[in-house]
Amino acid sequence: MKQQLGFTLIEMLVALAIGAGISLMAYQALSGSIQIEQRVNTLSQKTNDIQRIWEYFADDLQHAVARPWTDSLGSTQPAMLGLLGDRQSQSSSASLGDDSHLLRFVRSGENNFLQQPRSNLQLAAYRMTIDDSVEVENGRISLWRDYWRQVDSASEPKIKSRRLIHNIKNISFRYLSRNSKTTDDQAWITGWPESAEQRDQLPIAVEITLDIAGIGEVKRWFPLAHADD
């Protein structure tokens, strides 16, 4: 009887099927690993963005001073202006220009490495822009930080801007007055100043809540060092 050499057709088909199955499993494992890595990188980037935002807010609010200022039209502005907290429900037409500032105040402590003859004060402000081309659930809000050195200026200030984060679904602010005897939820107010008597005052704390796509709500309280000045 003649000895058979090689493989039969059935054996080759079985081997090809096993090889294809192994290749498919390897591809699925590799694809899953890449997707997980992408998600981890995205989450890590968002976490870093959030941490950077908190650092900006902490530095600015720690150096906030109770100093009203005069704008280019000659109007006296309060020491801190905090518009009503939830801006997502408002029209995106309010997202441009000074009207979009969610929070604006005078701060001290600006570095002057060149020892120029100028004040160490500056105006810091936070605003949002809305991208209507993005779905709401994906976060259409970007948060910006503006600042300018001409605290009392007869001309339009030279504003410098930096975008801190995008893909925010909502942002809200609340304020705690020095007259509050508790930090319970009912003690916080959604706009500052709440009365004319508070125009030259600062709240003793600011609460900021960000609703970020893919993460959810994150919240932080910031005490103000110079609230009683």
Structure description:
It is built from one helix and nine strands, in the order αβββββββββ. With 229 residues, the chain is α+β, with helices and mostly antiparallel strands. The chain has one domain: Pili subunits. Strands 3-4-5-6-7-8-9 form a seven-stranded antiparallel sheet, covered by helices on one side. A two-stranded antiparallel ribbon has the order 1-2. The longest helix is centred in the N-terminal third of the chain and has 54 residues, at 9-62. Mean pLDDT is 80; it is low at 85-99.
Offer a few descriptive terms:
single chain, 229 residues, alpha+beta, Pili subunits, 7-stranded antiparallel β-sheet, two-stranded antiparallel ribbon, 9 strands
Number of domains: 1
* Secondary structure tally, helices: 1
- Gyration radius from CA atoms, angstroms: 28 Å
CATH homology superfamily name: GSPII I/J protein-like
CATH topology: Pili subunits
Spatial ordering of strands, largest sheet: 3-4-5-6-7-8-9
SSE pattern: HEEEEEEEEE
Structural class: alpha+beta
The average pLDDT score comes to 80
Shape: elongated
Largest sheet: 7 strands, antiparallel
| Beginning-to-end CA distance, first to last residue | 108 Å
Helix percentage = 10-25%
Based on the coordinates given, report the CATH architecture: Roll
Tell me, what is the CATH class?
Alpha Beta
Give the total of beta strands.
9
Low-confidence stretches: 85-99
Strand content: 25-35%
